[in-house]
Write a structure and sequence with these properties.
Radius of gyration: 25 Å
Number of strands: 7
Mean pLDDT: 80
Helix content: 25-40%
Strand order of the largest sheet: 1-2-3-7-6-5-4
Largest sheet: 7 strands, antiparallel
């Protein structure tokens, strides 16, 4: 009888220890989730010197242990001293990269859009005089530096702000959703760069970026 009680006691202790071990493992697992999937969440509310919203980035990049933002403004870019370049990128510890470059230059919307129009898998959208194109993993925005309704110069090539955005590695969004999210990201960069760059005159950007549609 004593042996049976002893065996039962040992069995209860073993079950209790196993339960504690499982609970500890579960705690470590869920604790790891809580710690290691908040890399994007730990970015500033508006990364890249306030250029974009963190939620826009979170829509594009998957959760990761860490995420690092980088930005750079070069207001003496190229031969023409009027040109500037603003760069914004976010890299996660899993190797997913989101980057965008806003650059000013003399280029007409027709010249700029020709390459995108010829791409069979591109989508496009227009809001006012702001044009957007996107394909899988890449998007671009064209914004005239002249305020809407005002001619900037008699030059055949208009002064413009062009933003290109792209991804590398895994993304959270896919397909058409990713294309639109990239346009949203590029649009926020364009609005920021227009203010800090060399575009003359005020411009009110619409609340929403161009909505894409297939040809």
């Amino acid at each position: 009888m004593m042996k049976r009680v002893s065996r039962l006691s040992r069995k209860k202790k073993l079950i209790a220890r196993s339960g504690m071990a499982l609970a500890a493992c579960a705690g470590l697992y869920f604790g790891a989730l809580a710690v290691f999937t908040k890399g994007i969440d730990r970015l500033p509310d508006r990364p890249c010197e306030g250029a974009v919203e963190r939620e826009t980035i979170a829509d594009i990049l998957p959760a990761a242990r860490t995420a690092e933002e980088r930005s750079r403004l070069d207001d003496d870019h190229g031969i023409d001293s009027r040109e500037f370049l603003f760069h914004c990128s976010v890299l996660t510890s899993d190797g997913s990269l989101l980057s965008g470059d806003a650059e000013s230059g003399d280029r007409s919307v027709e010249d700029w859009s020709s390459g995108w129009v010829e791409s069979p898998d591109s989508s496009s959208g227009v809001t006012g005089d702001i044009t957007a194109f996107a394909t899988d993993g890449a998007a671009a925005i064209y914004v005239s530096c002249a305020p809407p309704g005002r001619s900037e110069s008699k030059s055949p090539k208009s002064r413009a702000l062009i933003v290109e955005a792209s991804t590398l590695g895994e993304t959270k969004a896919q397909g058409a959703d990713l294309q639109q999210d990239l346009v949203d990201f590029a649009y926020e960069l364009a609005e920021h760069a227009y203010k800090v760059g060399e575009c003359p005159g005020p411009r009110k950007f619409p609340d929403q970026s161009p909505r894409l549609h297939s040809p």
